[in-house]
Specification:
With about 375 residues, the chain is mostly helical. It has 3 domains: about 50 residues; about 80 residues, Tyrosine recombinase, N-terminal domain (DNA polymerase, domain 1), CATH 1.10.150.130; about 170 residues, Intergrase catalytic core (hpI Integrase, Chain A). Helix content is about 50%, strand content about 10%. The protein contains 14 helices and 8 strands. It has a 3-stranded antiparallel beta sheet with strand order 1-2-3, covered by helices on one side. Strands 4-5-8 form a 3-stranded antiparallel beta sheet, with no helix packed on it. The protein has a two-stranded antiparallel ribbon with strand order 6-7. A hairpin with a 4-residue loop joins strand 4 and strand 5. Helix 6 packs antiparallel against helix 7 and helix 12 packs across helix 13. The radius of gyration is 31 Å and the shape is elongated.
Amino acid sequence: MGSIRKAPRTGRWEARYRDPSGRQRTRTFDRRTEARAFLSAVEADVRRGNWLDPALAERPFGEVAAAWLKSNPHKKATTYSRDAAAIKVHLLPAIGELRIGQVRPSDVQNVVARMRARGLGARAIRRNYGVLRAILNWAVTNDIIDRSPCRGVRMPELTVVKRPVVSADDVIRLADAMDTDYRVAVFLGALGLRQAEVFGLRVGSINFLRRTVTVEATVNEVDGRLVEGSGKTPNSNRTFSAPQEILEELAAHLARTGRTKPEELVLQAPGGGPVRATNFRYRIYTPALVRAGLQGLTFHRLRHSAGHMMREVGVPLEVIQRRLGHASIRTTADIYGSLPEKVDRAAAEQLDQLFKASRAEPKDPARGDPGRTVPPA
């Protein structure tokens, strides 16, 4: 049990208690009633196992954010770099100096407001807010604070932006505009590979006999460094059938470049080794977009076009999910769930043929419609 006494020198009231580890702690108050109320609350928290070390809540948010970044040594380099940038650019300027125990929902709302004022889109704001929420949830889990202030925060509404989708003709036109040694990158993107997956694809991952491509590695450029790794999600590692046209492009590319060893990268920098994303974008891909008249078509949009092209020819969402390596069918449905008009019209025409065929069948008046079962009287 704790105790309350009046300090002889200051005349203030001291509430003394022992924390769960047995350490003696003291807090002073101007009034005895305040000290008694505090002591009662602390003793109740200790009994329930809810006591938190008040010194931890005094740590600046920036210090806790740095600890959170280091708390997961298995975080992918790309994710680490993105989270670190969100903290540095958007979180620290707003609440970095605040003691984490003092961060309130209004402070969190202010972080969102500052991002909106800087012109960030809804998706970027939500992504950066997700980093803030993860930091504060981690602080709760590690008994730094007892409750996250991410409560009742108003977020900007997501708006659906219809971006142009390239056709098969556009893909071929862009490939023809590329430098010869990199034209297959366009076909691989149109097959559904992420850019990092294209750069990480090795010769042994292409099975020309079975006509399949296996995606199991990536090469990313992170803060100027080349980082080789596995897929973005467990579903990113996948094997799927490839169109014969693209396999022929790949075969011609490997024959032209003399890359025959299974461990060799399909695409390489001019001097050998992995391709850097920045060099590829500025020196190869963007100039080809200009030559093809397809300015603004990002490589990621090229990958999305693969999903739209498959949807147009009636490929089920489950198959699109597997081929693109989405983490869940919900992601696939959100992007490609709407039925293209051409597919919808084709379905109506097929149903129309069924009805026409039924009407065209000869009918026996004595037996009624042969396609219909007549119940007994």
